[in-house]
Amino acid sequence: MTLTPRERFLTYVRRVPGARPIVSPFLPHADVVQATLAYLGLPVTRDLVEDEVRLAQALDYEPMFMTACHDLIFPWVEDVGASDAEWIVMKMDTPDGPWARRVSRRLGVWGDDAGFPVKTEDDYARLAVVADAVVEREGEIRAYFRAWRERVGEDGVIVIGHPHVTWMGYQVSQRNLIFHEVDYRDAFRRGMDAIYRAACFVFGIAMAEGIDFMSESCSGLEMTSPRDFDRLDLPYLQAFSGFTHARDGLFWYHNCGLTRRLIATGRFDRFAPDVVETIAPPPEGDNDLRGSRRALDPAICSKGNLSLLLLRDGTAVEVAEATRRMVEAVRGYAHIHSTADAVLTGTPPENFIAFVRTAREASSGHN
What counts of helices (H) and strands (E) characterise the chain? Predict the structure, then answer.
């Protein structure tokens, strides 16, 4: 029986005997997909899903797509009339009245603390009210996920976006996250709890509408410590994983930072993810794939590892050699051959093709 790409991906993660290894580049940028299609002489539609499905069929890989999540909990929209050449004004209706934020056009939301709406202890109460109000938008959230499933069909898997509970759903700047957790500990905890509740509500709808993986992400050791991972991140990861598994779903964990020590000390095993990505190597991360893969529980399917900078800036021969080393490093373990994070814009088609075709060929016969 011929399996669809979605079925191949899911049977492999679920460890069905004889399942073919999966090759799945992590969210290649639209320009990479389009340039590679053109290089192969294939049509380009500029529809992100349609183009990647066509490319995946041509190169024989299993695509994954990612939806929104925290954006569904915090539905900011631009107020075009209030925006100007310097600032994008975003607004949201809340049970307590309108809420506004301003994002610098020049610096972007991550380049300027002014773009984040939660700045004071009192702001956490409003954040919680907004998060709890997500239940009022069940219909539109259900329609959103249903449209995604219909759009992708059986041509790939869909992963829900990360709610980022301990990053406060991207409503607090990275710098203030550290200060607020210390200065406003009770309010900060109530905010995280509210986002967790809202995310579980969204997860439940997503699973009912056929989204394949629930997910979460948190900081690597470039931004946290093992102690704070245990104190802040781990309880929510365990709760999300338990919520998902209780409904026969699959839980996906993303961490593209410094994770080698977290893996080696068994911290990822403790929340029983079905997939862990990206096991990033230097310079993106700090993992030796062979050692980190062996430190993970064998029941966990790992994913990733190919350096994004090598994929973009190296030669096709170098990419193929690195890919073969990646495949060999995980021989005997469940591993999705993929990249250290989202494939960078400007990655040459020759390199992208070298990665996918080498991964497919080198992993042939593995299971």
Answer: 15, 10
Q: What is the pLDDT of residue 91?
A: 95
What is the distance, to the nearest Å, from the Cα of residue 365 to the centroid of all Cα atoms in its chain? 28
CATH number for the domain including 145? 3.20.20.210
Q: Buried b vs exposed e over 188-209: b needs ≥16 C-beta within 10 Å?
A: beebbebbbbbbebbbbbbbeb
pTM of the full predicted structure? 0.95
Q: Is residue 99 part of a domain?
A: no
pLDDT tens for 100-156 read 999 999 988 877 777 899 999 999 999 999 999 999 999 999 999 999 999 999 999
Side chain identity at 246, as an amino acid letter? Answer: A
Token match 């939660």: residue?
118
C-alpha 251/C-alpha 2 separation (Å) is 26
CA distance 4 to 64: 13
Give 23's DSSP letter.
Answer: B
Rounded CA-CA distance 134/199 in Å is 9
Q: For residue 251, give the DSSP letter.
A: E
The torsion region of residue 186 among left (phi > 0), alpha (psi -120 to 50) and beta comes to alpha
Contact partners, residue 118, CB within 8 Å, separation at least 6:
124, 126, 127, 168, 171, 172, 176, 180, 191
| Cβ-contact 102, 115 below 8 angstroms | yes
Distance CA 75, CA 249 (A): 26
The answer as to whether 83 is a domain residue is no
> CB 296: neighbour CB atoms within 10 A?
21
Total domain count for the chain? Answer: 1
What are residue 339's DSSP bridge partners?
306
Give yes or no for a cis peptide into 25 (omega within 30° of 0).
Answer: no
Structural domain harbouring 161: 5-75+120-363
Q: Are 211 and 149 in contact (CB under 8 A)?
A: yes
Q: Is 225 helix (H, G, I), strand (E, B) or coil?
A: coil
